[in-house]
Amino acid sequence: MERGDYDGDIETIIASKSFGKSGTYANLLRYLVKCSANDNVPKETTIAAEIFGKNDFDPSQSTLVRVYVYNLRKKLKNYYQNEGSKESKIVKIPKGSYAIEIAERKNDATIESKTSKWRWAVLLATLLIASLGLNFFLGSNSKKTMLVDKNGLWKDLIESELPKMVVLGDLFIYSERDTATTMTRTIRGPNINSLQEFEEFKSKNAQPDIEIGALTYTYLILGSAQWIKKLSEIILSIESDYTIRTMSRFNPKQLQDYNIIVVGMHKTLGVFRSFYKNSYFEYDAQNDAFIYKMSESDEPIVYKPKGDADSYHTDYSLMAKVPGPNNNTIYLFSGIWDTGATQSLKNFTDAKLLEELETRIKSKFGTLPQYYEVFFEVNGIDRMELSSKVLHINKLEDVTKRSVILE
After folding, report:
1. Please, are residues 26 and 14 in contact by the beta-carbon 8 Å criterion?
2. What pLDDT, in 10s, does the model give residues 288-319?
3. Facing residues of 241 across strands?
4. If we measure between CA atoms, which residue out of 43, 77, 237 comes closest to residue 149?
5. Angle at which helices 64-81 and 23-37 cross, to 10°
6. Which of 110, 212, 292, 305 has the fewest CB atoms found within 10 Å of its own CB?
């Protein structure tokens, strides 16, 4: 592509309202134009290094570049539908490529003249279809609710142009081999939930004739499929895509690149447990319980699961929306058991429950806080028939780092 082939101005596109105020997307567009002008189509790894500063980028492990280019295509399309509607040539990024192309714009006037005679027919057909749809809608006596409110609790996820990632808390397992008998077994230790904790355990539990080692796979929690299903519905409804990671395979370097949704048992959340530092809750790992303390003068309240997780039981879950390290947002859904995580997420993905929760939060604070936490009590039989009630809702914007220490 020769620079002179384009009679528009890249900087005009970047400065437009339709393009949006994003330095990253502006730099990405300038970079792709420069490369194409030099007949140099950059690779995904090159873009990651030049634009995002990721010299160790692995395309098989991250969709960061692809998501940004996908969104850049949408920004260009939006520009040419608005401020650039009169331009004769348009900038395009063909799918499957990172090359910039200049294309002649179709003559909308010619198309209009050829199709004007069909306008009334199409309009009448559209009205007829709409009328039939409305009759069916009213006849079904049901109220259709939007999946999510763009101004509701998922607002930051909808408005942000950062790519999205779902992180699932998985169960760490390791192998134990008896060198005398050559017998090997796979072990799940409830207090070992990361490679770091495993290495600490290994250093303190050395035994003769016993070899222990981390495995290359982990166990996903039973509710993981349900979590993915519910989040897929939400994310796809806002016309976005996302990347999935398990906690054991999450790279902390990705913390600043994505808006992240984390779901799992609290003890499996790894590095994300540090994001609860401003919470009114502490997690007591030894007793597997949440401890709530509103102020230093209050007596702490201990919330610990009761009953059998495979029959009737009570669990507790903590949801928090917190700021990430790079103007991104992190949504955390955790339970002491997996049922708590499942039901807390349901309160944010089920349309009726989400609406009720938003109404309750607005009623308490007058508006939806930017950052907050919600604590639920969850009751149910097995992991299927679950119900929950809200016990605590707290704003987190003005909360300083908590100093509650568990003895």
Report:
1. yes
2. 999 998 887 889 999 999 998 778 899 999 99
3. none
4. 237
5. 90
6. 110
Q: Residue 368 is encoded by which pair of tokens?
A: 């939806």
CA distance 292 to 316: 12
| Pick from 82, 66, 72, 84: nearest CA to 29 | 72
Pick the CATH number of 3-104 from 1.10.10, 1.10.1060, 1.10.287, 3.30.420: 1.10.10
- Give exposure, 322-343, as e/b (b: 16+ Cβ within 10 Å): bbbeeebbbbbbbbbbbbbbbb
265 DSSP assignment = E
Cα 248 to Cα 21, 87, 197, 215, 242: the distances in Å are 35, 50, 11, 11, 18
**Sign of CA pseudo-dihedral 283, 342, 260, 329:** negative
**DSSP code for 92:** E
Cα distances (Å, whole numbers) of residue 210 to 181, 207, 383: 10, 5, 37
The burial class, CB within 10 Å (0-12 / 13-18 / 19+), for 179 is exposed
User: From the first residue on, what is the mean pLDDT of each consecutive set of 10 residues in the chain (407 residues)?
Assistant: 54 89 87 90 91 84 83 89 87 88 68 44 48 49 58 90 92 92 90 84 89 90 90 87 88 89 94 91 93 87 91 94 93 95 94 94 95 95 82 77 35
Contact 160, 329 (CB under 8 A): yes
